[in-house]
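ok new one. same drill as before - structure tokens go in, u give me an amino acid for every spot. 379 of them this time. try not to just spam alanines like last time pls lmao
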């Protein structure tokens, strides 16, 4: 098995920053994190120089990348293009995300994910089905023709496909509590999103197995002094995870910081909600027959609505640190360790002996220099 060592000015192992340390990789796994002086003289060392070597980023909301929108290319080749596009931003593992579409599209997505997993692709963690069980009033860029409550047959289909890791985002007011419970009991991660529910409805869903909230603040009922709404219920709950889009457009940096203060440590995760333009020179793409175009770092559809983001995870890390003022180590955990815990991935999110060697090296200017997946350099 290939064995080598990586040395950077700083190594962030998931807990602390280390100086004068090296990361030893063997067979795709971290075998040691040790002081440079203790390393055997005959071991090959790659000197990375300035910057930080950190756990690879994990993104559980990725609609596209590398010029591919998953809805438009639900194939193994499409998945691999998305993965390659996000390696450039330091992401080493992700969930391709299918937004609201036909049942045939969902079937294609499941089949493509299953086939890609069978190839041994380590950066693929499963499938995120975002919709179509949403509140029309909070549909955002999702097409109104697909909004519906699930039938029992559709719930049965989801459970039958839970042999692959599934995350389903839904509006709890259009999905019955017992349906949420059935999915959660089958191992499906259920999140609330695109929902106009009141806090009481959200709390019932949490009791039924709701595990998290998709893109906190966006496409969900806001908090007020008299009714907590979805946002208030999400921030108050001590167990549920929240994803947040730190792109400078979906959420103001002060609101990122507010969510970080409100949630218990470990329960706030960075996501990109990235579309096809990330990791690609093409700055427009088709969705539902509309042209989606990047403007000043955001994506806009024909209705003038935000249509996903144009950032990579390294951008979310930079914005959360520099603009929201969250300490860098904590931001890196929000991009790696906490998503790993949310997605039930116990061997990801740290640079530690026995963990998979998913790594990213970036500069003080937040420029990704190299990304490794299971010890394989990707750039």
């Amino acid at each position: 098995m290939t064995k080598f060592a990586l040395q950077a000015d700083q190594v962030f192992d998931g807990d602390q920053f280390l100086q004068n340390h090296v990361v030893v990789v063997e067979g795709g796994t971290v075998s040691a994190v040790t002081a440079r002086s203790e390393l055997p003289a005959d071991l090959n060392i790659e000197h990375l120089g300035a910057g930080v070597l950190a756990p690879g980023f994990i993104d559980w909301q990725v609609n596209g990348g590398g010029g591919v929108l998953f809805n438009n290319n639900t194939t193994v080749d499409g998945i691999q293009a998305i993965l390659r596009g996000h390696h450039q931003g330091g992401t080493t593992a992700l969930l391709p995300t299918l937004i609201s579409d036909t049942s045939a599209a969902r079937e294609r997505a499941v089949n493509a994910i299953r086939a890609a997993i069978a190839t041994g692709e380590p950066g693929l963690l499963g499938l995120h089905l975002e919709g179509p069980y949403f509140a029309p009033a909070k549909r955002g860029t999702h097409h109104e023709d697909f909004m519906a409550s699930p039938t029992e047959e559709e719930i049965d289909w989801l459970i039958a496909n839970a042999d692959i890791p599934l995350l389903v985002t839904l509006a709890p007011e259009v999905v019955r509590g017992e349906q949420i419970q059935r999915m959660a009991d089958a191992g499906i991660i259920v999140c609330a999103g695109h929902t106009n529910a009141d806090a009481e409805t959200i709390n019932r869903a949490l009791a039924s197995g709701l595990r998290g909230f998709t893109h906190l603040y966006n496409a969900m009922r806001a908090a007020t002094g008299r009714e907590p709404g979805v946002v208030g219920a999400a921030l108050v709950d001590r167990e549920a995870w929240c994803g947040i889009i730190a792109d400078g457009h979906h959420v103001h940096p002060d609101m990122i910081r507010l969510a970080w203060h409100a949630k218990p440590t470990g329960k706030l995760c960075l996501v990109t909600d990235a579309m096809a333009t990330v990791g690609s020179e093409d700055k427009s793409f088709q969705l539902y027959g509309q042209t989606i175009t990047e403007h000043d770092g955001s994506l806009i559809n024909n209705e003038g609505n935000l249509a996903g983001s144009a950032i990579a995870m390294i951008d979310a890390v930079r914005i959360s640190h520099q603009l929201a003022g969250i300490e860098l180590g904590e931001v890196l955990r929000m991009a790696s360790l906490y998503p790993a815990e949310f997605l039930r991935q116990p061997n990801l999110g740290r640079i530690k002996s026995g963990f998979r060697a998913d790594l990213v090296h970036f500069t003080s200017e937040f420029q990704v220099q190299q990304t490794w997946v299971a010890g394989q350099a990707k750039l």
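The longest strand covers residues 45-55. and btw The mean pLDDT is 94.
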